[in-house]
Design a protein that fits this description.
The protein is α+β, with helices and mostly antiparallel strands. It has 2 domains: about 120 residues, Diaminopimelate Epimerase, Chain A, domain 1, CATH 3.10.310.10; about 120 residues, Diaminopimelate Epimerase, Chain A, domain 1, CATH 3.10.310. The chain is about 15% helix and about 35% strand. The chain has a 17-stranded mixed sheet that branches. A two-stranded antiparallel ribbon has the order 9-10.
């Protein structure tokens, strides 16, 4: 029987970004890609990201997180999911701060009220080999990539950023004017992105407001993606399209992104919601290894 059989889980969301939180602290089990896909296939535990908590690795941290996408692949960052985990760990605690850790580094979290949290997503990375890209671009504010005919591309010259995972942001006049469900998977797997990429369409309203649509690597179209909101915000500021503090509107709602000048870190603030608590049925993992 799978070690996950009858394990409790939380079904949550951050602006509609579907999140499952699974606490495996004190257990040696590591979720396999097949187990993650099995959890995602069940309507009650359907997720965009599965946030799995393990015992803390580094001193001064509260837990180590592994993050799984719907297809069973792993990610190093999920801002909406991190806020959900912060809620789960602080809901019965007098503290208002904690620090989580992923493969991408430490993520300090601050509770502002019962359902609103700020996550320090760390510093963005812009160098081509840190994103990573398959070839060198000296200026990643606009890389050579286009969709459509060479002389009249539908999309072109995206900004590239690593916000714990790779992001490409295309600047458009209207995010609804493009079929991201069709374009997204092709661009996610484009050879220029050796680790695949999150693909965003960004519409700049003014110096303090961006509208965003996201195709999430390993998950598909999503109502919200916290790391993509951070990536779009810093990319817009680099191009002098906005200031360093902006509201990013996604289909699920708004995130406040503040690219702090003092240490280059990106702070993301937004809400979370608990939908239900459940347990994994043993039959869910039949054949999953």
């Amino acid at each position: 029987m799978s070690a996950l059989a009858n394990r409790p889980f939380l079904k949550m969301n951050g602006l509609g970004n579907e999140i499952v939180v699974l606490d495996l602290r004190g257990a040696a089990h590591v979720v396999t890609p097949a187990e993650a896909r099995a959890i995602a296939a069940d309507p009650r535990s359907r997720f965009d990201q599965l946030m799995v908590l393990h015992d803390a690795v580094s001193p001064g941290t509260d837990a180590f997180m592994r993050i799984y996408n719907t297809d069973g692949s792993e990610s190093s960052a999920c801002g909406n999911g991190t806020r959900c985990v912060a809620w789960a760990l602080l809901k019965d605690d007098a503290r208002v701060e904690l620090t989580l850790e992923t493969a991408a580094g430490r993520l300090p979290c601050l509770r502002l009220d019962a359902t609103t949290f700020t996550v320090d997503m760390g510093a963005p990375r812009f160098r081509w080999d840190e994103i990573p890209l398959a070839e060198e671009f000296r200026d990643t504010r606009a890389i050579e990539l286009q969709v459509g005919p060479i002389d009249d591309p539908v999309l072109h010259s995206p900004s590239a950023v690593n916000m714990g995972n790779p992001h490409a942001i295309f600047w458009v006049e209207d995010v609804t004017a493009h079929d991201l469900a069709r374009i997204g998977p092709v661009l996610e797997h484009h050879p220029i992105f050796p680790e695949r990429a999150n693909i965003s369409l960004a519409e700049v309203h003014d110096a303090a407001h961006i509208r965003l649509a996201v195709w999430e690597r390993g998950a598909g179209l999503t109502k919200a993606c916290g790391s993509a909101a951070c990536a779009a915000a810093v990319a817009a500021a680099r191009k002098r399209l906005t200031g360093r503090r902006v509201t990013v509107t996604l289909p699920g709602g708004d995130l406040l992104i503040d690219w702090r000048e003092s240490d280059d870190h990106v702070l993301m603030t937004g809400p979370v919601e608990l939908e239900w608590e459940g347990r994994f049925a043993p039959a869910l993992f039949t054949g999953a290894a």
